Amino acid sequence: MRFRHPDGSTVHLAYCTNVHPAETLDGVLAQLRDHCEPVRRRLGRDRIGIGLWLARAAAHTLTTDPASLRALRTELDRRGLEVVTLNGFPYEGFGADEVKYRVYQPDWTRPERLAHTTDLARLLAALLPEDVGEGSVSTLPLAWRTPFDAHAAATARTALTTLAARLDALEELTGRSIRIGLEPEPGCTVETVADAVTALTGVPRHRIGVCLDTCHLATSFEDPRTALDALTTAGITVPKAQLSAALHAEHPYLPEVRAALGAFAEPRFLHQTRTRTAAGLRGTDDLPEALATPEAGHAPGHAPGSGTGPGTGPGPGLPDATPWRAHFHVPLHAPPAPPLGSTLPVLQETLALLVGGPHPLTRHLEVETYTWQALPPDRRPRTRARLAEGIAAELTLARDLLTDLGLKELP
Questions:
Q1: What is the pLDDT of residues 90-136, one digit of tens each?
Q2: What predicted TM-score, i.e. pTM, was given to this entire model?
Q3: Distance between CA 233 and CA 223 in Å, rounded?
Q4: DSSP state of 310
């Protein structure tokens, strides 16, 4: 979906296809037929954008077989789909029964990550619509926080610098500009925007910037204005932003709240959980660890539990006298039932700052709710049609937010 910003530029809105498991090119083509085109039809649009996720096996096929790449481009056009951004964070296995920490491998200290991201950039340059000259690829924020030392940091920085040079060469060859966004995520070496500013020191910033995920931003209790001001001051761009909402528990000391949270503690994805206390941000690597705290049940004003800092590794749990937020991408249009909520207001505030000013700070927006089948059983879509209905509803909400900010939806 395309929108005209008041300054005359075009802002693109897509939804990310990592919600549909597929490791091979055949699987990707099936996604377009079984999921993406039905979403477009539900929206009543001739064309919608998708943020394509290409696992390593699919990307390898496309880079080694030009006929396959032409076939994918043809299929996108035939089904009314366009691609201006790729999700390059998961490398493979994102549809596995248990993903957890595996999603952070290979990281930016490994040559496979550089090779894969280079391939994705080249593929995107070939998949961009004829009238679009710029694409974006989101990627993991260097690595999980452990083990990661000064040598690893230097290795990752060298890899990003090499990638920037390859992207410069790619633009010279194709006329298409591809930019990369590190995606800050709780528990990673780059968890916050401040971490990103430090990590990108010395890295060519005309090519490498930040992918701002509003679920991650909210989970780490970052203030959107402070975060964006820090990026602007540092001269770091936002090649893309992911529109997502985290799980919010206002009163985690209450038994009924903890029971509701327990329904979201599932075995597939990692749900880093954070709380903001007088002593600073405290966190656990996963929601079950937070719920396991032996100090649970404190009302406000009582001594908090002994949770760990987000950078120090898993511990016995979290203090529960202050609100919790968990890295669980809940559907934008359907927040959890009380006593839980979502961080949709953080998304709204961030979006207003990104595209509500005189000029957009990013032109690529991507709805990224990949956890539909990880929701509590009574909230999961049971059919393809119900999933398409949910994704279409999310895109409709995002569209309405954009038009409320003064953007005009284009045909």
A1: 999 999 999 999 999 999 999 999 999 999 999 999 999 999 999 99
A2: 0.94
A3: 15
A4: T
Q: Which two tokens stand for residue 410?
A: 């284009």
Phi and psi at 246, nearest 5°, equal -95, 165
Give the dihedral of Cα atoms 264, 194, 347, 330; nearest 10 deg.
Answer: -10
Q: What are the residues whose beta carbons fall under 8 Å from the beta carbon of 391, sequence distance 6 or more?
A: 15, 19, 35, 39, 367, 369
Q: Are 191 and 146 in contact (CB under 8 A)?
A: no
* CA-to-CA dists, residue 198 to 137, 164, 192, 252, angstroms: 20, 18, 10, 33
Which residues of the chain fall short of a pLDDT of 70?
293-316
DSSP of 224-284: HHHHHHHHHHHT---SEEEE-EEEEES-TTSHHHHHHHHTT--SSS---EEEEETTEEEEE
* DSSP string covering 79-111: TTEEEEEEE-S--S-TTSS--GGGGG-S-TTSH
Half-sphere exposure for 405 (CA within 13 Å, toward CB)? 27
Which pair of tokens denotes residue 399?
């569209």
Of the candidates 27, 40, 138, 30, the one whose C-alpha atom is nearest the C-alpha of residue 82 is: 40
